[in-house]
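Appendix B. Chain record.
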Amino acid sequence: MGQRNATVVRKTLQQKPPAATHWSRASMAAATGLSPSTVGRNL
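Structure tokens predicted for this chain:
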């Protein structure tokens, strides 16, 4: 697993997004600096 995959998975499992109950592609992309497409491929 690459570093960006690990970052997305770790954040998904260990944190909640601000003012939300779950991560969306867009919110995870904004939080990690990755594109929504990259986030989608990693989840």
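Further analysis of this model is presented in Appendix C.
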